[in-house]
Amino acid sequence: MRTSLNLIGVLMLVTAVANSTAVQAQQIAQDANSSSAAVSLEVVHTSASDSGGIPDSLKKYGKYLRRAGSENWKFHSRNSPKPVPGTPKTVNLPAKLGKAIISIDAKGVATVKILDSRGKSLGIYRSSRFPLVIANQRLRIDGKPYVLILDRLKKK
Amino acid sequence: MNQDSDLQRFQELVEASAHRELTEAETAFIGRMGFQSKECRQWLEADAQTVTAAVAEDPLRNVPAPSSLDWARLETGLRRAGALPDTKSRVRRPWPMLPAAAAIVLCIGVVYAILRDGLSDAPVHSSEMVVEILDLPEDDGSLIFDGGEDDDGVLMIVISNG
């Protein structure tokens, strides 16, 4: 009986020490990842068009684009900023619409602040879910709605 | 009843008082004879002196002290009877301190975890969802469409009335 109690005590002690060590190691690893590792994001610029449907490069966002108000969309450009948590990246919008300041925090929540060509804020958009599809009616290219898509690049 | 028989009964009752409780009649007889019979008093005094001398003699003093072998035999006998623990059983070690130390470590761990994560049972950082639009110009409204369970994405539409 006493031997069993001693054995249980040893197991509890070893488990507690191992658990605390593992938690500390995991915390250190998370801190290291969150503080130094850049997050790979992809910014896709697109605008509505009169015809042509949705090109293959935008197929994966088709559901969102159609909901944004048009069946036809045109691909403009793509950026791959790698913001480090705590350090935002600036991306210029096409057709001199303005710029987007993109940042991501340690929890993976992305923040997009869109400024028009005069530097006026058109809103701050925060999301922990991707893709983040932003359609602001103030932003138009040739009179057609412009949409900014922020997506997270999947690791290969 | 003659004096001899009284003395004999007196002696018997005094001897018997060492082994049993006397009745009231017997006690009264001893008391009465102690006052009335000189022989009984003399016998009682002589008996008391004999007892005192025997006690002063201390017969236990003549009993030799037990040797180590005697103590060993006594221990063996008590151990066989179950009054003492078996010598084959392990010597008590300071191991009982270990469960207490483990309990203290666990308590510290629990307190540390509560201080770090709070009392919520929800996984930390795993299910927190943030979808919001801030700092819109005046007169602008917003709509947010969730992608649903099949898709993690979100569509944010800002409608401008300006």
Describe this structure in words.
The complex is a heterodimer of chains A (156) and B (162). Chain A has 2 helices and 8 strands, in the order αβαβββββββ. Chain A has 156 residues and is α+β, with helices and mostly antiparallel strands. Chain A has 2 domains: 1-37; 38-152, no CATH class. In chain A, the strands form 2 sheets. A 4-stranded antiparallel sheet of chain A has the order 2-1-8-7, with no helix packed on it. In chain A, strand 3 and strand 4 (98-104) form a beta hairpin. Chain A starts with a helix and ends with a strand. The mean pLDDT of chain A is 83. Chain B is mostly helical. Chain B folds into 2 domains: 1-86, no CATH class; 129-162, no CATH class. In chain B, 51% of the residues lie in helices and 11% in strands. Chain B is built from 5 helices and 3 strands; from the N terminus they run H-H-H-H-H-E-E-E. A two-stranded antiparallel sheet of chain B has the order 2-3. In chain B, helix 1 packs across helix 2 (24-36) and helix 1 (3-17) packs parallel to helix 3. The longest helix of chain B is centred in the middle third of the chain and has 21 residues, at 97-117. Chain B is rod-shaped, with a radius of gyration of 49 Å. Classes of the chains: A alpha+beta (156), B mainly alpha (162). Chains A and B meet through helix 1, helix 2, strand 6 and strand 7 of A and helix 5, strand 1, strand 2 and strand 3 of B. Strand 6 (121-127) of chain A pairs antiparallel with strand 1 (131-134) of chain B, so a sheet runs across the interface.
